[in-house]
Amino acid sequence: MPWVEPEPGPSPEQKPKLTKQDSATGPEWYQKSEESESEGNQPPLESLASPRPPETPGPPALERDDAPLPEGDDASPRPSVLDDAPLPEEETPEPRAICRHRHRCHTDCLEAPLSRAFQWLGWQVGAHPWIFLLAPLMLTAALGTGFLYLPEEEEEDLEKQYTPVGGPAKAERRFVQGHFTTNDSYRFSASRRSTEANFASLLVVSYSDSLLDPATFAEVSKLDGAVQDLRVARENGSQIQYQQVCARYRALCVRPNPLLYAWQVDKTLNLSSISFPIYNHGGHPLYLTGFFGGRILGGSLGMGHLLLRAKAMRLLYYLKTEDPEDSVQSKQWLTHFLEQFTNITNTLALKKIEVVHFTSLSRQLEFQATSMTVIPVFHLAYVLIILFAVTSCFRFDCIRNKMCVAAFGVISAFLAVVSGFGLLLHIGVPFVIIVANSPFLILGVGVDDMFIMISAWHKTSLADDIPERMSNVYSKVAVSITITTITNILAFYTGVMSSFRSVQCFCIYTGTTLLFCYFYSITCFGAFMALDGKREVVCLRWLKKADAKWSSFKKFCCFPFGSVPDEHGTDVHPMNLFFRDHFGPFLTSSESKYFVVFIYVLYIISSIYGCFHVQEGLDLRNLASDDSYITPYFNVEEDYFSDYGPRVMVIVTKKVDYWNEDVRQKLENCIKIFEKNVYVDKNLTEFWLDAYVQYLKGNSQDPNDKNTFMNNIPDFLSNFPNFQHDINISSSNEIISSRGFIQTTNVSSSTKKKIMLFQ
Prior knowledge:
This is Patched domain containing 3/pseudo. The protein is α+β, with helices and mostly antiparallel strands. Helices cover about 50% and strands about 15% of the residues. The strands form 6 sheets. Strands 3, 8, 11, 12 and 13 form a 5-stranded antiparallel β-sheet that branches. Strands 14, 15, 16 and 17 form a 4-stranded antiparallel β-sheet that branches. Strand 4 (about 230-235) and strand 5 form a beta hairpin. The termini are far apart.
């Protein structure tokens, strides 16, 4: 009897082999393992008939059969195995006892049932590929109709989407809106508005050291006149002029620059004797903060310092905002302004100044324009990923070549995007602009799952049938793609708890689409891979078939030319060989370990250092494209106008006895506390109570008398109309609330603004 090599037994690291037995109800899976006997399972009949001793290291065992042994001279001696003979104690394998002990630990409580479930799913996908291919396609077609609800021209509210829900600033603004009124058609005040008004802003930068000369002011005046002469032609034939939509103070439009207007009225105005930040012109103080930048100040002059030089000037054109109809017309005029601004500057041929522009619509328009630029990049990304996937899965073996499968894997990720987005649009989840960036994440995850499944397919044998190969593939990839998908989905769905609506919508869309990506990977993509497996079988039979007609063509189907793939072997990618034979041994050497630890320590140190230098806040320049017109505007503003920040309201929210001297002293101390802040200019504080007390004392009135205090407020407001919207008086002649203003300085960064609020 000839010697035969026995089949190697399963090692402790190997999984038990699963075999299939067809029945009337479908495939049934049974586990063959020698350890099953130790668990108390019923052994097979063959083992009952002839007990098998444990395998031991040594010479291979002989093949036994039921034929009689030869006798006589022809009988060749061979070793025999006695079924009843006990094994020596020293031949009992210790590793098997250890394996049995480890098997009882049940550390695969998650992996084992998941693998079994995916084995069954893989068998079904391999047995019925067309069902699993067409069903997701029809689902995608149905859910894709949700894109009909995609908003096209609806204006996205940036404040609603990109500010915290329930933030304290919103509550404070609601209080201001409920207690203080404004009127931008008659008495407009930018600092007294609780919301941003419609506006257009021009920053003028002189080519010389200073623009405080009549020639430069004349050129700026021509620019101002060209802007105010803009007219918007409407469909009904009427026009929208600047004078119709401008915010007004009394009967006049709010001047874009108070000093420029004073010079336009009086061309003999001496520009070399201007005081800053307050200039007294004809008995009326002109506040110049925020209107001139790049300043060089001299000695004290009047209510400020002598303005020696100014490199830049700001022109602010405020428009009506409160009335909805006026706001619509203002936005139409601003849109026309943005369209015609380049023509204006080209027509004027400005020689002494450079001009940059910005409007209240610019953030919205540029943000949308930047997001729209993602669409062609999105198309390019899919094309590049398809090329990369096709190149990575290319083989010189025409049977194992997976170029078409790789391309369909990218298409499967696209189908997931269509399904996920369509479903949420059907439900009514808001589609914000940043959601347009999520397909890039979906593409990366989908392609990753695709490569894992293709790699597992290459490790199967061509001799096995398609359902069995698909079952093996799914059992190998079950844990990897399932766990990674669950963690990704949970990470994004956790973002739903964010206080920003835009982040909430982004996480909902991305998490849901990742779920569809996972579903389509194990159904639609798996079905296509099973169909491609049938192609492999057909190609293999065609190569093996003797056909003189195609013999010369068959030689070029595989490399080396003329070879036929081993149907019992597996495919090993060259990259796997590189990591196994070169990178792995290199990384495990002692020198490499020390180097990796050193690099990791440097990485940790640099990461900790970076955490302490994170810049908080949002730079609007990062929201626009590199060639956007708002980028130079913010550059100029940062260079020349960053010293004065916004004016801050200080509100008394309760009823207090303003005529009580002790109460007034407490309010005055409170204001002084604010003025001690290093980011506040105490010389520019504006509080109606201080002006009113001085007004009463100047008229020989007693500010400590209640009747006197309350009865003289109307006369005070008629003489000082700026404070008219700073006092909220009820119908019972009581001051419900009032407010003052402080001027912030040197708060150009978000970090400084945060420090200012905490002080």
